[in-house]
Structures are given as structure tokens and as C-alpha cells.
Amino acid sequence: MSIREIRVEPLTRPVCRAFGDVIERDPRSCLEINNGEVLHQHDLARVDVTAEDGRPVISIFQGLRPAMLPFRLRLMERHPVSSQAFVPLDRSEFLIVVAQRDARPATGNMRGFLARHGQGVTLHPGTWHHSLIALHAADFLVEDRSARGEVFDQDYEEESIDDEGIVVTLDTDLR
User: Fold this and answer.
1) How far apart are CA 12 and CA 168, in angstroms?
2) Which of 38, 59, 88, 167 is deepest in the core (most CB within 10 A)?
3) Separation between Cα atoms, residue 138 and residue 175, nearest integer Å
4) CA–CA separation, 63 vs 18, rounded Å?
5) How far is the C-alpha of 101 from the C-alpha of 103, rounded, in Å?
6) What is the mean pLDDT of residues 1-16?
7) In sequence order, what are the residues at sequence separation of 6 or more whose Cβ sits closer than 8 angstroms to the Cβ of residue 121?
8) Mean pLDDT for all residues in the chain
9) What is the pTM assigned to this prediction?
10) What does the alpha-carbon distance between residue 76 and residue 96 come to, in Å, rounded to a whole number?
11) How many CA atoms lie less than 13 Å away from 62 in the CB half-sphere?
């Protein structure tokens, strides 16, 4: 089996647009509130979870085992009818690996991004993505959906890619 590599690139709004929204401070969306004591960063990402009687849920995921690089991809998942957001609750960086919504995940349609301190991401409904790839043990605020009070919604598909030898690498100049 040959190893296929996905090289990580910086997470920016333009390169992420096809897969989701970057969640980060944006001076264009700043509003002073509470008598000038708070800057409100308004409407930074779209949340889309209400299809098929879904409702938004906020959870905390704990990244217990930091990823070692190069990181071998195991499976890709997607949520066909809802978005999903990941925002670190500390100064952690994390990797995002995504693929086009309308095709089986494969090296040719995968992209890898490095989310730096102060960045999170909301993935569009149907966007294939690897599960959380934390580079440090960290907590993440996760926006998800729940339908009919279920903890694990049926809005979930996965595709095993463990046997395809796909690894994610990070150039030292990005760290």
C-alpha cells in the first residue's frame, strides 16, 4: 500500500468557504455593548441544525490524546442535514480534514487545515470531515444537533478510510 499525503494549510475564510465557516474575531462584526465594557463579535458562522425536527445542542468534547504527526486518517464522517462547529476553549491548535460533500472521501478531494489560537470552524451540512484531531489535550465547545431528545442523532454517516494509507503532515513553518 502506498502512503498518500495531505499537506495542511492555514485555515482562512476563503479556502474554507466550500466546507464551512471559520469562526474567529472579525473587526467588521464588532459591536460595543454593556456600556462599552464588552465587544460583541456578531454572527460569525451559520448554524444549520433545524431540518427534520433538529434543535441546536452545545457540548464539550475533551481531546484526551493529542495527535502525533504525521497523523494517519482512519475514517471520515458527515452530518447530512446539519452543521457542526468546533471551537477550542483554550489556546489550542487543531487540524481539520474535510472532503467535498457530494463524493466519497478520497485523497484527491480532501483538504487539511490548521486552526490556530482564536479560530474554530462550523462545517456545512453534508461536509465530510475526520473526527476531532487535537494537537494538545484540550476542551472544545461543539455545536451539534439533537432530534427527538436523542443524545446521538441519526444525522450521521461514516466512511472507513483506514486501509487507504492517507496521512496528514504539517510543515514546520506552519507551527
Assistant:
1) 18
2) 88
3) 17
4) 26
5) 6
6) 90
7) 11, 16, 20, 21, 22, 23, 45, 85, 86, 96, 113, 115
8) 90
9) 0.89
10) 11
11) 1
Among the residues of the chain, which ranges form H helices? 13-16
Contact 123, 98 (CB under 8 A): yes
- Distance separating alpha carbons of residues 63 and 133, to the nearest angstrom: 8
Q: Say if residues 138 and 61 touch (Cβ distance below 8 Å).
A: no
CA distance 65 to 63: 6
Single-letter code of the amino acid located at 106: A
User: In this predicted structure, what is the pLDDT of residue 101?
Assistant: 86
Q: How distant is the alpha carbon of residue 121 from its chain centre?
A: 5
C-alpha cell of 51? 431540518
Cβ contacts of residue 167 below 8 Å, gap of 6+?
Answer: 3, 4, 5, 6, 70, 71, 72, 73
pLDDT in tens, 120-131: 999 999 999 999
Estimate to the nearest angstrom the gap between the alpha carbon of 142 and the chain centroid: 9
Nearest to 136 by CA among 93, 174, 72, 170: 93
